[in-house]
Amino acid sequence: MSATQTPRQAMPEQEPAVRARNFEEVPLGYTPEMAMAEAGRCLQCKKPACVQGCPVNIDIPGFIKHIAEGELDKAIGKIWERNLLPAICGRVCPQESQCEGNCLLGRKGEPVAIGNLERFAADWEREHHACVLPSSDDATGKKVAVIGSGPSSLTVASDLVLKGHGVTLFEAFHKPGGVLVYGIPEFRLPKDIVAAEVACLESQGVKLESDVVVGRTVTVDELFEQGFDAVYLGVGAGLPKFMKIPGENLVGVLSANEYLTRANLMKAYLFPEVDTPIPRGRRVAVLGGGNVAMDSARTAMRMGAEAVSLIYRRSRDEMPARKAEIHHAEEEGLHFELLTNPVRYVGDDQGRLRAIECVRMELGEVDASGRRRPVAVPGSEFTVECDLAIVAIGSGANPLLPGSTPDLPLNKWGYVIADSNTGKTGKKGVWSGGDIVTGAATVILAMGAGRKAADSIHEYLTWGW
Amino acid sequence: MFTIVAREEMAAGTVILNEILAPSIAAKARPGQFLILKANEKGERIPLTMAETDPEKGTVTVIYMVVGKSTELFKRLKVGETYQDVIGPLGQPTHIEPGKNVICVGGGTGVAVLHPIARGMKQAGCNVTSIIGARNKDLIILEDKMRLASHELHVCTDDGSYGHAGFVTEVLKEKLKDGGVDQVVAIGPVPMMKFVSQMTREFGVPTMVSLNPIMIDGTGMCGGCRVTVGGEIKFGCVDGPEFDGHQVDFDELMLRLKAYAAEERCSHERCACEERGAQ
């Protein structure tokens, strides 16, 4: 049987009815047999388009060949050459629009399950500890401060420590990982996996200082005074957007940032075993159509909601969420209220949310985003009953760090201006990348920015600005 | 890190002072700013405005009333033990204008936050009259320190067990009637700040209050600490904690502060049960 005819190995998953009520990871992972069978489907293209589609250019055919040949211990080493966070990327990258989206097999049938295989290689290694991490170059004596510990910062840290530089990660929260720990739910990315990948960096020599709010506890200029030679700002977007409609401050209206931080970072779903509470809505409305909206809606189900509606102003085709997440959410019983826009929140006499008044939308002309602009249908107002609303309509640039770094050039929306090839900002010795430069995007794009910045920082530490 | 170097029980054990080793925070902290503290792995992140900082010793001091499980856990920490996490300094420092005629009004543990502000104002050449109050004599804190930080001090108790019998607002009203007041600073329970602000509005005296809304990260990321100020949404953690009392929607703030009342009771009762079970 030729490769194109072999069906793609389906990922074993928890049953929808079961998983919708627990926080365990949804996909269970391939067995070695399944991984080898799936790896056998790879055509080993001479000019692999999948690698072009990967923002960090992992040697995809290379690591897949090792799996196909049963050399599981070699597979992860191949990935580590370009990516020290494979267990995370294998789980949260939008493979369908990157590596797998470019796979030749996908033209006629189903692409190779590259994400599933990356995850398999990482998980297999974590269970067997069979591999030796790449060794660092000789110490250069240079010190780099990396602000934030999300995906772009972790990439910068891993690349620079391998080149022999001293790296310190500064994290404002009490735990490292950024959006990986406060934003992405346990059932999609278990937190012990993030902890293991951060521990792997620490074993490489990266120092971690949590509970440090750069901009408050210490400023960027003070870090230079303390002897750091370069600074990377990977602080994410992190300013919740609200719709600015009446009733937004009612009890029961939360930003997705708040809801997910309570659930993920503070483990509030375990309340009262842990001390941080979280609202348990009976009827929950989630506003938005991206991955954060899906994560919020699926968390609300697991918190015991009777009904969860996702309110999105465009149609299903325009939803920015990963296809797999939309599919998973739908299987778990999420209700889509499409082409619908909230106009005001309605409260009771105790200031608690009772309902959202909405209006139906239709799609008009294509707008600057390349999507058809939603337009309200006059007289189509209706009410969605709910006692919890989670606003997941995106994030803006958090001004805290830029505000304390007066000579750092920003654009008119408050994002840091950085060169897209190098990550260099307009302030000498300072690089930046990820959501604080691009606006809210994906984990792997942030990692791609981190990789470019790390190359540029290394060049600077070696040759000068 | 974050070791408790001094501990004091005030107001008959209902109010606790912790002086905590946190040199990098102490070096930076200014009056009016706050910290977020977390007792242990499973603990909540609790915002508390600093009562004192000592950059030379590298310490910061918080004074808090024991009201729920988290503050109960804080209370149980002994000298030499540590908070797992202390984050700060957060929020905007107090803006002090030199040479003004100021009345500082403090209620309950709010006096702890008011004290460095009153002292700072006195040092800046302001004429400081302070009015502090509590339910009864035992609950009055920092009276001596407030006396030093003020040119004139009035103490009120609701039950009349000490000083003026009645609310701080009664003394304040007399002072406002006398005229010549440039600014009022009011820090304490939300209803007190609300009534003070209502009164000073009548007299047209600018009034600053320090709010303590529910928050998680304290860096503007979660938006949980939203308050309506002058019809606009502000974040208590980065825009505050101090706001113009004439612009704050106190009723909304009170409703939002009660958002987790049921969960807090549950948590506190469980904590009390665990304590009894352990004995």
UniProtKB/TrEMBL annotation, chain A:
Residues 19-129 form the Dihydroprymidine dehydrogenase domain. One of its GO terms (molecular function) is glutamate synthase (NADPH) activity. Its EC number is 1.4.1.13. It is an enzyme of class 1 (oxidoreductase). Keywords: Oxidoreductase. Residues 142-450 form the FAD/NAD(P)-binding domain. It comes from the Bacteria. InterPro entries: DPD_II, FAD/NAD-bd_sf, FAD/NAD-binding_dom, Helical_ferredxn, SudA-like. Gene3D superfamilies: Alpha-helical ferredoxin, FAD/NAD(P)-binding domain. NCBIfam families: gltA (TIGR01316). This is NADPH-dependent glutamate synthase. It comes from Oceanidesulfovibrio marinus. The gene is gltA.
UniProtKB/TrEMBL annotation, chain B:
Gene3D superfamilies: Nucleotide-binding domain of ferredoxin-NADP reductase (FNR) module (3.40.50.80), Translation factors (2.40.30.10). Residues 1-96 form the FAD-binding FR-type domain. CDD domains: DHOD_e_trans_like1. SUPFAM superfamilies: Ferredoxin reductase-like, C-terminal NADP-linked domain, Riboflavin synthase domain-like. This is Sulfide/dihydroorotate dehydrogenase-like FAD/NAD-binding protein. The lineage of its organism: Bacteria, Pseudomonadati, Thermodesulfobacteriota, Desulfovibrionia, Desulfovibrionales.
